[in-house]
Structure formats: C-alpha cells, structure tokens
C-alpha cells in the first residue's frame, strides 16, 4: 500500500511541496526574461486599442513594421523598465493563487481542480490588479509616445501625438527618468491620486474573470490531454500546449473589456462614456480591436510563462515529492 502511495503521480504541484528559497528567486528571473520577450506585443496591442479605427496602424504586423522603421527597437520597448516593476505584483499574484488553492484543498470539499483554479485565479487577480493598475497607467501613457525627432513618417507621428493626453518635452525624454517622472507628475496634476486608479474596477471586471478562466481552461485542457495521450508524452509538453489554448480562449471571451479598460486608463473617461464612444466609432467591431495582437501576446506569454512556471516548480520540489512528479 505504501509503495502505491509513494509512486502515485502528482498532477498539480502545490505550494507546500516546494522549497521557497529556490522558487522565488527563479520566479523573478523568469518573469524578467519573459517580459523582455513579450513587451513589444503589449505595446502594439495598446496602440491598436487606443487608435480610432485604423487611422494609424492597419493591424498587428503593420504596427510592428511602422514602429520598427520609425522608432527602432527603442520604440518597441518604450516604457519597458517601468513595466518590469510588474514582477512584484506578479509575485503577489502567484503567491495568492497558490495559497488560496492550498486553503481550498485543506478546508473545503471542492474536489474539482478546475473550480479551485477558477476561484484562486479570480481572487489572486484582485490582489495583483490593486498593485498593477498604477503601473499600467504610467506604462500606457509612455507606450503612446513616438519618436518625433527621428521619425521618417511625420503623418504617423502627428496622429499618434493626437492620442496622447500627456505631453513630455524633448528635454525630459533625454534624461534618465524624465519621461517617467513627467507622466507621474502629470497624471497626479490632472486627477490626483485617483488618477493612478483610472479603470481600476473595469480592470477587476476584466482580469479577475480572465485569470479565473485562464486557470480553469488550463486545468481542463491539461487533464483532457493527459487522459488522452500516452504516458511517454512529457507532462511539461502537455502543460506548454494547454497554456496557449487557455490563453486564446480567455482572450477571445474578455477582449472587449480589455479595449474598454485601455481607453479608460488613457483617455480618463468613465465606463459608459467610453463604451458609447467606442460604439459610435467602431460599432460591434470594437470587440475585436487589438485581438490579433492580444492573441499573439497571450499565446507566447502563456507558453513561456507555463514553461517557466512548471519547470520552476519541479526544480523547487522538496526531496520527498520528486519521485511523484513527472517531467
């Protein structure tokens, strides 16, 4: 009986099974690397969502080409160092997720992994978004700043400038923290401390269900694939396929809220005014604004984040669980 327990496969690695001294430093390093890879997709998605119709960029690829040509690599990574501060809310998010899963396992009769994942992901998102929204607002304003000095397409820069609510003088852009300090100061001057929480509730309305759905679909796809595929297929490969599928599913369901959130945080209008304006400008098609960039971002992000997340959990396993978790 003891042998069967010891050799029984553990499908989900829980927080209590890991050595935290290994897990957290590796998580920070992994998060920084993944953000470096994915940041340009987030910048492109934001610009597509903020523009009216297709007046600047026709789509994801067109935006990538124009930004690369006009602004160079610096344009694709504008605001990246501010965005890196998201690593700390991310740590709070994943810790909350794991702790709530552990609590539900110990104190409830929920036997379905998908339900535990949905609840844990949704509640973890509330913690994460409380810390993330101010960083998002600062980053999004910086993302809209073009390279006026070296741009080869003046018309594109004029249209991009018309979307900006905050003007950053050229002399401030050249200083090390000039752009960031100017944006923070102007957001505070225009709206006070609440300006850093514009769209907070719509962010919760987006990211809490998006997070819950992502984890729920991730567990669903993982379980279905593990049951359908032979045992010789690596579990890590199954996770890396399930994660992008979950990302696409959640992105399609919640994209309209993501568009509204981005507009509220940049333009500063309330929910119903933003929704009315989007409907007037785009009609029902606003639901799909930036969706292709978001799907690309979600697929790549989900793949790399789960490759890192599941690998780090296995590397951080305590000795007594290593024989029960398959790679």
Automatic annotation (TrEMBL):
Transmembrane residue ranges: 23-44, 199-217
Protein origin, superkingdom: Eukaryota
UniProt entry tagged with the keyword Kinase: no
Bilayer topology term: Multi-pass membrane protein
Protein keywords: Membrane, Transmembrane, Transmembrane helix, Transport
GO biological process, one term: branched-chain amino acid catabolic process
A GO term, aspect molecular function: branched-chain amino acid transmembrane transporter activity
GO cellular component: membrane; mitochondrion
Sequence ranges of the Solcar repeats: 22-103, 112-224, 234-315
SUPFAM superfamilies in the record: Mitochondrial carrier (SSF103506)
Compartments reported by the entry: Membrane
Main location as per UniProt: membrane
Similarity comment: Belongs to the mitochondrial carrier (TC 2.A.29) family.
Name listed for the protein in its UniProt record: Solute carrier family 25 member 44
Organism per entry: Potamilus streckersoni
């Amino acid at each position: 009986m003891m042998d069967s327990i010891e050799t029984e496969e553990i499908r989900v690695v829980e927080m209590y099974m890991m050595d935290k001294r290994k897990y957290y430093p590796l998580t920070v390093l992994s998060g920084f690397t993944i953000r470096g890879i994915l940041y340009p997709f987030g910048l492109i998605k934001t610009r597509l969502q903020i523009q009216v119709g297709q007046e600047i960029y026709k789509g994801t690829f067109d935006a990538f080409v124009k930004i690369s040509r006009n602004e160079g690599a610096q344009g694709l990574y504008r605001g990246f160092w501010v965005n890196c501060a998201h690593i700390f809310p991310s740590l709070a998010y994943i810790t909350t997720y794991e702790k709530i899963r552990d609590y539900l396992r110990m104190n409830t009769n929920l036997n379905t992994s998908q339900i535990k994942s949905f609840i844990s992901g949704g509640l973890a998102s509330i913690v994460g978004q409380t810390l993330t929204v101010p960083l998002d607002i600062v980053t999004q304003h910086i993302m809209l700043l073009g390279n006026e000095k070296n741009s080869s397409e003046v018309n594109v820069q004029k249209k991009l400038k018309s979307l900006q609510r905050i003007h950053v003088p050229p002399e401030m852009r050249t200083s090390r923290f000039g752009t960031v300090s100017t944006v923070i100061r102007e957001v505070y001057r225009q709206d006070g401390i609440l300006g850093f929480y514009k769209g907070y509730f719509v962010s919760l309305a987006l990211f809490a269900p998006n997070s819950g759905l992502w984890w729920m679909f991730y567990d669903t796809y993982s379980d279905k694939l593990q049951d359908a595929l032979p045992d010789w297929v690596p579990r890590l490969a199954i996770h890396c396929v399930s994660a992008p599928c979950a990302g696409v599913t959640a992105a399609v369901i919640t994209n309209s809220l993501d568009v509204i959130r981005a507009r509220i945080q940049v333009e500063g209008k309330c929910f119903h005014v933003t929704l009315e304006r989007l409907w007037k400008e785009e009609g029902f098609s606003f639901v799909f604004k930036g969706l292709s960039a978001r799907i690309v971002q979600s697929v790549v992000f989900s793949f790399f984040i789960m490759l890192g997340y599941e690998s780090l959990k296995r590397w951080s396993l305590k000795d007594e669980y290593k024989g029960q978790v398959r790679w």
